[in-house]
Amino acid sequence: MRILVVSQYFWPENFRINDLVAELVRRGHEVTVLTGKPNYPGGEIFSEFQATPRAYDSFEGAEVVRVGLLPRSRGGLRLMLNYLSFMMSASILGPWKLRGRKVDVIFVFEPSPITIGIPAIVLKWIKRAPIAFWVLDLWPQSLEAVGAVRSKAVLGLVDRLVRFIYWQCDAVLAQSKSFMAAIARQIDDPRRIIYFPSWAEPAPALDTVSPAPEVPERPDLFNIVFTGNVGEAQDFGAVLLAAEALRGEPVRWIIVGDGRKSAWLADEVERRNLGAQVLLPGRFGLERMPSFFRHADALLVSLRNEPIFALTIPGKVQSYLGAGIPILAMLNGEGAEIVVASGAGLAVAAGDGAGLAQSVRQMRALDSRDLAKMGERGLACIADQFDRSTLIAQLEQVLSTLADANRGTTGAEKVG
Question: Which residue in 300, 309, 360, 356 sits closest to 332, CA to CA?
Fold first, then answer.
């Protein structure tokens, strides 16, 4: 198939779409990616990209077509302008840069913003190709949850935009089963909603990887590692409450990542005199994560106490399960249920810093064999529910069905 991937984020930014594109190419598909200039999560265009932009015109056999955007920088206004600038640039320049290129199906990657759907729809009309839209973030619910938009009128307008985008999509892929019910309230034909969760990206066996040199080795401590975005949604305020509660105990928190709350987090660690307990190594590429996992006795996933986040399976849950290391979860809903039901770790309610501290104590009290069994149960959960090869094969089938239906009709037929 000739697959056009539309995503505001792409390599060298670290997102699961990179792995998906590489795998689709390996499976024999012709893949083109329409994306922007890399600036996530730091907010500025990557210096290495600015130095040699042509070096980023292809990735693992896929052609990468980039359009301009206003970098995220800092602040809510700049973030909205970042979203809008990519939407307009991809809608206007995207079709020009892709002129003459035949497309069988369009795949949209939407961790946020929903506005990524607009250029995809423009390209659908021009290329006469069906759209499969992978929803990893629900709008307008997420905007309200993180406080980005408080106006009910504006949230209502965003909801109407979402309904329009879903109406134009031939298949809407939901990252969690809870998402399916939420999306069904915004779509005209629920039969087009398909459950399609994330998977654990391929990674080397941990025993073949050296521990990250950026972190001093302390086997005498119980090391808790967090990797990923440091943002509003991750509720680091509650995490720091747990760190304060465990101040006098042999526990160390290693927060690997960057994001809009990074500066706040660094200031709070200093203000609360937690520098010895909380390490902030910074942002590293996805390929470096196994080296940080080597330090981990447990892996941390957290989300704020908001109804929207209870519907979400954070992508790092699958990555953590695939690492075979016990999980400490401070979140509600489907993500927590997976951790508990699989037996791969312990979970407390979102925002419960005291409960998180108690879970750390409980996990520390386990012997090495019990901790190893938790990790093994995580690996079994991946094989049973989130196997990468199985899921990508399912996606291939969805895309193939859309492309075949489009050839047999005019692109109006939907996947049931």
Answer: 309
What is the chain's length? 416
Side chain identity at residue 245, one-letter code: A
409 pLDDT band, cuts 50/70/90, is low
CA distance 167 to 195: 18
What pTM value is reported for the model? 0.88
What does the DSSP assignment read for 230-285? Answer: -SGGG-HHHHHHHHHHTTTSSEEEEEEEE-TTHHHHHHHHHHTT-TTTEEEEE---
The 10s digit of each residue's pLDDT in 281-330 is 998 988 899 999 999 999 999 999 999 899 999 999 999 999 999 999 99
Domains of the chain: 2-199+387-408 (3.40.50.2000), 206-385 (3.40.50.2000)
Q: Minimal CA–CA distance to 129: which of 163, 66, 171, 161?
A: 171
Contact 35, 139 (CB under 8 A): no
3-state SS, residue 385: helix
Q: How many CB atoms lie within 10 A of CB 153?
A: 8
Closest-CA residue to 318 (of 338, 332, 304): 338
Give which of 73, 99, 87 is closest to 35, Cα–Cα.
87
